[in-house]
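Example 5.3 — Carboxylic ester hydrolase
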Amino acid sequence: MKTRVFTLSAIAAVMLSACGEQAAEKPEASAPMNDTQVTIANGTIEGVKDDDILVFKGIPYAKPPVGENRWRSPQPVSEWDGVKATTDYGNDCAQKPFPSDAAPLGKEPAEDCLYVNVWAPQSGEGKRPVVVWIHGGGYVNGGASPATYDGSEFARAGVVFVSFNYRLGRFGFFAHPALSAAKEGPLGNYGFEDQIAAMKWVQENVEAFGGDASQVTIMGESAGGGSVHNLMQTPGARGTFQRAIIMSGGGRSLMGERYLDKGSNGQPSLEQIGVNFAEKHGIEGTGPEALAALRALPEEQVVDGLNLMALFMPQGGVVTYGGPVNDGEIVQGATQTMLEEGKVAKVPVMVGTTSQDIGFANFPDKDALFASFGEFAQAARDAYDPDGSADLQTLVASVGQDFTMQEPARFVAQQMTQMDENAYLYRYDYVAESVRDGKGTPHAAEIPFFFKTEDVKYPEFTQKDAAAADLVFSYVVSFIENGDPNVTRLPEWKPYDGEQHNMMHFNMDAEAVHGQDPWTERLNAVQGATEAFQASTGTE
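Solution (predicted structure tokens):
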């Protein structure tokens, strides 16, 4: 257990069914937990003690999605006899690892990957609040095994922490006319179906680890944040969580709109993309033989070089990967539409971004950049470059992240507030002292601080780094416990107010400062331009 030294007085005082089948009877809760053996719905498992917590890794929550189960809904796990050892992560899901991943995988990727992990307090009476982590990676990379995602500190703070893998890339998001003709169940969004199955597993089993199935928070970053948005709208996840934390997850339509059997906005249907992929591998036709041939493809041929680098550096040619799809069942609409229509879970949310978040824009000069704001061009120029001194590279980066992440996060807070739910908006602007470059906090760089694993990510972590981690971690744990992040002796974090445009700013001095967003005018220009464009084109 790591030793910490704190220099900020404000910190020194802070705390440290399966689908389609009837759910199994919930196991008896064991609180306090003091044994490495736990009986869950499918049998008995054995984990390990780690000082004052218990850790269980590699628990199957669905059958391996291989062979005939490739591109099927997650299938129920059979009961097992005896005691299953759950002391190491299961495989991360099949993918081509991304060399620059902020959270490198800890296990070899494989198609057999549907496993869940649990960190639980060993002592204490009563049921504990639960948080379920959903990793990011653009739906093509990532997993639950990176050391940065270790849930030990949550368990030591009295929270049952759960993480899991879900199918990625073409294994998780794929369609083909042969699959549609087979009528085997929902189509296209197998990775999202895995997430729903994992949430149902939590409902059925978490009380065996001392958790409270009625006090569950879902928490995800990037594609994991997008997944939180989808869990908030999809009928299959209703009632499986009571709060949500959305970290750099967009809030309008991060991955674009795509449909199973029709093109949209210049994009082919997911079925056509599947046909393109099949033909690339010499598979013709749309009948059972084609489906059998697709399911017989070796794992590495299904991956076919796909990763984040391939997504962001397209090589041209025929499109062979699509991603999540609006199927009308698992995904029922764009995030923006579902929020505007109030068709999402009515739960408290914590939502925010990093100060140098991800986003893309490409303009040859300032005039072209500001002209892209349409009728809001002058408002944008006044907000981003009032004296004309900003360089183009900085402006493009700022505009790109504002359209992709900053304004959509504020939009989520606005919409949830209109539904009479508290939304706690933040921007994370702390960078570990050993890697500072004078810029803001990059996409995903806040995760080690939210998890209090900054010493894993940054071996040369400092006292200020530790204080920054304890600060945000304290707010996160309080939100998981109460749906309210506020902690005694820390600055008050008020729910978002649409007139005040207030937020919590975690700054470079390891402080939490609450007040009006200094980027309000920037985001107002982005929101105006976005909504004007949508009104003129009939798109979202």
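Remark. Residues 1-32 have pLDDT under 50 and may be disordered.
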